[in-house]
Design a protein that fits this description.
Helices cover 40% and strands 6% of the residues. The chain has a two-stranded antiparallel ribbon. The protein has 3 helices and 2 strands; from the N terminus they run H-H-H-E-E. The protein is mainly alpha-helical. It has a domain of 60 residues.
């Protein structure tokens, strides 16, 4: 196919700019969620996310693995009663972070 100059296409409609790329295939993500391999938590402050990313980068390991290790450590501390949760009343629910209200 011969190359054409943009000036040769002056009268043609440029569909390239109007075409939207096909949506991403999300099959893999759906399968992981169904199997329970992917978990998402809301309400994690951006500063905490940044700190986890920095730790992962420092050790050159996956962010998910760093997060998993911290969760496992915290749950073990909670189960051994080294970590005590003290929720306070909040309208319609309880929270551990009353200052975020």
């Amino acid at each position: 196919m011969a190359r054409r100059q943009l000036s040769d296409q002056a009268g043609e409609e440029l569909d390239v700019l109007r075409q939207r790329p096909a949506g991403r295939d999300r099959q893999w993500e759906q399968e992981q969620r169904i199997r329970g391999d992917v978990v998402t938590y809301r309400g994690i402050p951006r500063g905490l996310q940044t700190r986890i990313k920095k730790i992962a980068a420092k050790h050159k390991i996956n962010i998910g693995e760093v997060t998993r290790r911290f969760l496992e450590y915290a749950i073990a501390a909670y189960e051994s009663e080294a970590l005590v949760l003290r929720p306070v009343e909040k309208v319609a629910r309880r929270t551990l972070y009353p200052d975020d209200l």
